[in-house]
Fold this sequence. Notes:
The structure is a homodimer of 572-residue chains.
Chain A: H1 2-7, H2 10-13, H3 19-46, H4 51-56, H5 60-68, E1 76-77, H6 80-93, H7 99-121, H8 133-156, H9 165-175, H10 181-207, H11 212-220, H12 222-237, H13 264-295, H14 302-318, E2 325-326, H15 328-336, H16 343-359, H17 368-380, H18 385-394, H19 396-411, H20 414-434, E3 438-443, E4 450-452, E5 464-469, H21 475-489, E6 497-501, H22 510-525, E7 529-533, H23 537-545, H24 548-551, E8 556-557, H25 560-566
Parallel strand pairs in A: 5-6, 6-7, 7-8
Antiparallel strand pairs in A: 1-2, 3-4, 3-5
Helix pairs in contact in A: 3-15, 3-16, 3-17, 5-14, 5-16, 6-7, 6-13, 7-13, 7-14, 8-9, 8-17, 8-18, 8-19, 8-20, 10-11, 10-12, 10-17, 13-15, 18-19, 19-20, 20-21, 21-22
Amino acid sequence: MTFLKSLLPILGWAPTYSRxxxxxxxxxAVIVTIMLVPQSLAxxxxxxxxxxxxxxxxxxxxxxxxxxxxxxxxxxxxxxVVSLMTAxxxxxxxxPASAEYLxxxxxxxxxxxxxxxxxxxxxxxxxxNFLSHPVISGxxxxxxxxxxxxxxxHILGIRAEGDTLPQLVTGLVEGIGxxxxxxxxxxxxxTAFLFxxxxxxKPLLIARGLRPRLADLIAKAGPVAAILVSILAVxxxxxxxxxxxxxxxxxxxxxxxxxxxxxxxxxxxxxxPAVLISLVGFVESVSVAQTLAAKRRQRIVPNQELxxxxxxxxxxxxxxxxxxxxxxxxxxxxxxxxxETPLAGAFTAVGILAATVFLTPLFRFLxxxxxxxxxxxxxxxxxxxxxxxxxxxxxxxxxxAMAVTILTVLLVGVEAGITAGVLLSLVLFLWRTSRPHMAIxxxxxxxxxxxxxxxxxxxTDPSIxxxxxxxxxxxxxxRALEDAIxxxxxxxxxxxxxxxxxxxxxxxxxxxxxxxxAIAHRLSSAGVGFHLSExxxxxxxxxxxxxxxxxxxxxxxxxxxxxxxxxxxxxR
Amino acid sequence: MTFLKSLLPILGWAPTYSRxxxxxxxxxAVIVTIMLVPQSLAxxxxxxxxxxxxxxxxxxxxxxxxxxxxxxxxxxxxxxVVSLMTAxxxxxxxxPASAEYLxxxxxxxxxxxxxxxxxxxxxxxxxxNFLSHPVISGxxxxxxxxxxxxxxxHILGIRAEGDTLPQLVTGLVEGIGxxxxxxxxxxxxxTAFLFxxxxxxKPLLIARGLRPRLADLIAKAGPVAAILVSILAVxxxxxxxxxxxxxxxxxxxxxxxxxxxxxxxxxxxxxxPAVLISLVGFVESVSVAQTLAAKRRQRIVPNQELxxxxxxxxxxxxxxxxxxxxxxxxxxxxxxxxxETPLAGAFTAVGILAATVFLTPLFRFLxxxxxxxxxxxxxxxxxxxxxxxxxxxxxxxxxxAMAVTILTVLLVGVEAGITAGVLLSLVLFLWRTSRPHMAIxxxxxxxxxxxxxxxxxxxTDPSIxxxxxxxxxxxxxxRALEDAIxxxxxxxxxxxxxxxxxxxxxxxxxxxxxxxxAIAHRLSSAGVGFHLSExxxxxxxxxxxxxxxxxxxxxxxxxxxxxxxxxxxxxR
Lengths: 572, 572
């Protein structure tokens, strides 16, 4: 039962589900549904897919997450960054708007689901930890810029293609002469209105006496108002006949039962994008879920989240949808609207299903420019310039990884960007550990504590040299250790003992062990004693498994103070 | 002048070169020449090249090293592992024994020279540090097995091709029926004789009253005796007519002036092999040079060695040779024979030049089986089973890297093997650092030193929890840190303070900084104080550059003892 409960978290909350829970969940579901319908259409457009695909991706996946997910408030569905990644991946194997393109998107969702489930089964969730915060932050910022740029053509009412920022800009510059004035007016008005509702409507409503929570929800419904007004304008003034592009016919009805392609060649082409979509989606989703769970002192189980997101993506594929993940904006709305259990997500699914069946004719005259405006306003909030500045100030290495991610996303593409960022951050970490910081230390007066002679006023003894090496000793820095010790013992005729202080040595690998043997040998032939201090338990265990200690003529001291005083240094 | 001296180390020793130095160098050169001539022919055969190419590779490169090298005893030339790598790389782009194959080998030497010089200019010598000892040791052991297996066909006098161990074994099994009895007798006799001289001749000569050094040198001349006797046997008994394969005509004369191919397509194909040959050659050469330099308290300059090896390889290419590096066996002979300066290498070059011009007709009737025997005996001494056992006992991670290197070399090839080994050892290091060891620590009685409560008898205080994290905090382990702290503070109602003891934290990157902020926030809302102790200088400098300290409500203690006593723990 415990196993089943951990596999199906629904069994944890369903038995105690109450009428109050149901009320809260229903209210949240209505609000999220209203927000999700236009967003789903917009993100499907961003992914280069027919609008109804966005709706399909917002139904079954929510049910699947409600069954398997551990977060009480996470709302899954299409999100901006994953939609962009889907467009990039599907665009590499099929022409936009073709049947093969749709098949590629569905197959991507299926593969992504398989990858997530496999990661769960193999407990590979830790792989997401290798996406550092600066890389993720840079990736999302750059994706936001790229997405916003890709939507400008809809605001202008022109045709312009491109996958990278230079291509997009070139396309816009070349095509700008053919802009449609009606589209442009609608696009600019919608964008301005949406920015205004997002920034100013809530304070205004509060000033007018509304309760903050209600004001917030009304402000978040801004897109709905923009959509209704623009549909009325298109119908009333016959703008479609004047060149304003509209969404057009959306087939009404239940999501279809769909099957992904089982063409192995296609799978091979889509596997790497699917892995990247899975990782990015997982990181985004888990971050959101953990933030919300912490507010209510709940916990989410990352490995179970992999299963839940995997199931959601497989459900999306089987109902004609495309890759989904837990979205930030909708989850926060769901949480703020009072969702108590994942059943809120299931209710939302029912709401979107109803919209898919009954409301699609309404959206026929919706201008694409308004959808583009909702996307632009949503993604520009993802652009985090302050994070770039903060990272620059804190660490140049982190900044380098972030900058390379941003530039590669903008100039080459999303997949290349995240790959370059991850590889560079790993290489930089390895590079840093390969040139460890080393300090000569002395006794802080009045204590038994030893610190860097260059930073603190400490007591030393000319016959004892204590070097603290601030890194695990492994193959990449073993030679650096040898060189550093030989350099530091040169020209010290009074030297009788060298102590290697090891509180920061968490590992001594076979290469470093050989270096330690070489150092011991060399110091011994120079008549200088070589000792270790503060060697940690796990490292000591490893040394005992080798024959190092049999040959080692020096001593291994529990504490550096013991080493210092035993070897003749002044006591405190 | 200092700059010139560091670029041309010859300027350091040439001005003080004495008559005694010259005598020592001349004696060493004669001995090394005698050893090198048959070895050069053998390694050229191993590389799939005409025998004279081995001689060409042993002339100009030695002069180049004498000018640029910093080791006084290193002898450069063809070596077994690099010959095997040359065969693998050239075999991928051209048919064996074709003119294109020779061009590929020459181009490989040229490219390898360029790579080495570029590494020197860009100060990339540290890259060699990423080849861990277990990976190098496994690579050399596996290469030795592969080389020995590849030579068995010459001992049997059959044709059998193959690049991997299974292919070689299959080829031998299929072809064994056609073995040549004369060849087999010569091959087995030569192998047995060479093993005997290597193991038993020196002790025997010493027992007969010879001085150890002389005995050693006579024993090392074993191959020369085997070669002379086998040539006499072939000529005397007309064995060449009975199917014993001989070396055949070797063109006498000066090395030709050669140019590498400048076909960019070929360069592209050979670049990765050239990089791997450069790295492996550099590591082998520097290890030998450092070992020998340490014995005479001299120092070698790794970066200058890159220049010297680069110049040697370019010299090899321009004189019709193939990739060279500093060899272990010949350098030790050079050192033992008393070489005082790199001029010994230049004298050796003159000796080999003389052999190339005058002695090549002598080797016409040399059986290939004897060359194969010298190779087998030389490379089997590279196989180090004890190192495998030692590594297994010491560290399973190091062993895994070694085992994967060995298996991949044997089953796939040399280049794949070294690449797999390097990547796996890096991945394993990252994996280890991503799951850091953490310990709850307490005060060792009578000291100010804190150790793991599970390993030592220590004093703790129920209101203070001190966690020592044994790793730099970076993106790959930031979440692990959060989880570990949350897990450890659960169910501790008496807890008032958590101290993170940081002596092993050499780096806090931007991701980990966010985790620390999250931990501080969470503990603060649970009414628990959060403090740091023993934060190192460079880490503290970085924290000061962020706004972490402005929000941080806890204290940062210089020593853990200060933290413990200040927060109310019992003093020593």
